[in-house]
Amino acid sequence: MTLEFAPDTADALPLYAIEGEALDNFVETTLTPAQAIWVRASSFSGGIGQALMVPGPDGAPALALVGYGSAASRARGRFHLAAAVPSLAAKVFRLAGGIPEDQLEQECLGALLTTYRFDRYKDQAPLGAMLVAPEGVDAARVERMARAEALTRDLINTPASDMGPIQLEAAATALANAHGAKIDVTVGEALLEKNFPMIHAVGRAAEQAPRLIDIRWGKVGPKLTLVGKGVCFDTGGLNLKPGASMGLMKKDMGGSATVLGLAELIMASGWPVQLRVLIPAVENAVAGNSFRPGDILTARNGLTVEINNTDAEGRLVLADALALAAEESPDQIISMATLTGAARVAVGPDLAPFYTDDAGFAAALTEAAPKMADPVWQMPFHAPYESMIEPGIAYLDNAPSGGFAGSITAALFLRRFAGQGHYAHFDIYGWCPSPLPARPKGGVQQGARALFAALPKALGL
């Protein structure tokens, strides 16, 4: 799996993306009479996901058609070229027309992402069809985005048996070393010595010690800090999850996987920024020393937190990391986490909800997301709900009762630790529940490409 474009060769076959209503005109004006008969005799109608190899005079493939649907059908999905690529023959193809110029980059990205295979535990048949980078597309940029997505997917897809805090640290170290970044890791009891009490409390019951991973890269430019939730498995702690809710908890480190993918993209692109990546890596396990419902923890910034549900642990580990991030007053702090089921109820698995008080940043992100085929949706830091996270016995409640506005109250909780600077929080799902074009069932990156497009404007790069 290379996630790269094919070299342009003389034998690359022309590939035409055809809208359904344009099929007749294409057949009449572009194809030979024999090829026209071939197409008309087939079931190809230009629908999204359809593909047809068309022979030349000698019977060998001469070109290929893929369906591009209609504007209405395209609005109901994304990566439309990718929907048809798996049905093409094992050939090299060159796009010959049919895809609007402003859609070329994302359609090419989808074609590359279609080649992704998670084959760590089982051999997966490679995709035979390959695409030449079209003229006008920055091939290196698209390949970087594909590799960053693949990194995120691989990390999420790997089960906790092979992706605990130790292995997540190893992945972060490999990434840092690949780009000449500095990495520092605080492990186990040292978390208490360095004042990360909530990270320690959440992870202390697990066999693999909790840790805070701290990556720094770049010495000039604005300061950008990415904070990713690294709960490598979440049993729920003493508020134990039912089995059905525990089945996907290997993906509870999806926030850390996503910020590592975004960091890979930023570093590989050579941005003039001072990048910092903070990952509290823990397993929320059950043992005699598990933190308990009713406990009151004191966070790094001195705020006390009443524990009303040990299954609301992600915001606890993020709180210490955000407090650390805020101490440097960076130009932008972004947290990403598979944080609440409430977010999934609100917007489903395909949208990445985000929170920010910065109207300019929100506008830049909302504008960039469709261009990057990476949908996001702004949610409110609704101040009247602040009282819901204030239990009275402590400054904050980690799990307000009542069940209302769960994603919003979690975001408000995190904002208490992020300081007064520019802060945005993403409550992602990190999982594709069923196969979609360019996205197999499994781990998926959300929000990273939209951020990659929006951050240069936000940071003044």
Proportion of helical residues: 25-40%
Q: CATH-wise, what's the superfamily of the largest domain? A: Zn peptidases
Provide the domain count: 2
Q: Would you identify the CATH architecture of the largest domain?
A: 3-Layer(aba) Sandwich
Keywords: Aminopeptidase, Hydrolase, Manganese, Protease
Family: Belongs to the peptidase M17 family.
GO molecular function, one term: manganese ion binding
Protein name: Leucyl aminopeptidase
Task: Give your account of this protein's structure.
β11 (296-298) and β12 (304-306) form a beta hairpin. This protein is an alpha/beta fold and 461 residues long. It has two domains: 13-132, Leucine Aminopeptidase, subunit E, domain 1 (3-Layer(aba) Sandwich), CATH 3.40.220; 143-459, Aminopeptidase (3-Layer(aba) Sandwich). It is 34% helix and 21% strand. The protein has helices at 23-30, 33-41, 71-74, 80-84, 104-113, 139-157, 165-178, 190-193, 197-203, 243-246, 254-269, 314-326, 341-347, 359-371, 406-415, 448-459, and strands at 13-19, 51-55, 61-69, 92-97, 130-131, 182-187, 211-217, 223-228, 230-234, 274-284, 296-298, 304-306, 332-337, 352-356, 376-379, 396-397, 423-427, 431-432, 442-443. The longest helix is centred in the N-terminal third of the chain and has 19 residues, at 139-157.
